Amino acid sequence: MSETIVAVDRALDILLLLYKNGQEMGISEIGRELDLHKSTVHRTMATLESKGFVYQNRENGRYWLGIKLYGIGLLIGERLSLTDVIKPYAKKLFDEFQEVVNVSILDKGSVDGYKTIIILKEVDTSKVLSVNPNIGSISDSHASSVGKCLIAFSKDIDMDKVKKMHFKKHTENTIDNWQDFQRELDKVKETGYATDNEEQEIGLYCIGSPIFDKNGHAIAAISMSGPTARMKREDLSEKIRRVKEIASEISLAIK
Prior knowledge:
α5 (about 80-95) packs antiparallel against α10 and α6 crosses α8 (about 180-190). By secondary structure, the chain is α+β, with helices and mostly antiparallel strands. The protein is about 45% helix and about 20% strand. It starts with a helix and ends with a helix. The protein has a six-stranded antiparallel beta sheet, with helices on both faces. It has a two-stranded antiparallel sheet with strand order 1-2. The chain has two domains: about 5-65, Arc Repressor Mutant, subunit A; about 80-255, GAF domain (Beta-Lactamase, 2-Layer Sandwich), CATH 3.30.450. It is elongated and about 65 Å long. A hairpin with a 6-residue loop joins β1 and β2.
């Protein structure tokens, strides 16, 4: 067996161990369970973390399975219970306004800051948007309503990592620096919702609100998006109210 195959085998054993244990584990604990040197485990975890397959809890230094595994599972058609709970609420919001509804989670394992991954969507295929990403698609958190919500309200956010993100400027409206993004996060925390005002694509407007677990941490965010002219009509305040209400209903359902 070649060294490359040994390394892959070791990494898979660690992922399976984390899955089997069902909780975060430290370097020493993993080493004992698999009879591996701490230095070997450390190198392997660093590699897995760089690819998003595990993430490290900055508070205690322990590791858990990364959100990238969730995204891969979604791409090959697997369904997780969270989407089963959320789907009726997402459909209710879609049926009310006939605008695209997405539910996204945070990818904490990206080496380039924090990204968001779509896990559920409701859409009228006859209304084609210039930006209409599929389930499993990844987006920059700083330029999306769901990303702002998830950065503002999720647990274990490394703000130093956020400050060092590459604030890619997708349009002239995109936030492109930490100071402005921090002000935006403060606003999201105060209002309980976020917007993407043509920040990813000119002509596209989006409203997002966080979905909380029983501990008050955001585990996902729901959004409604459509052409700016249609979204910002006189009923914009009603759209914002309903997105927040649906997010609250989902939060209550999963607690």
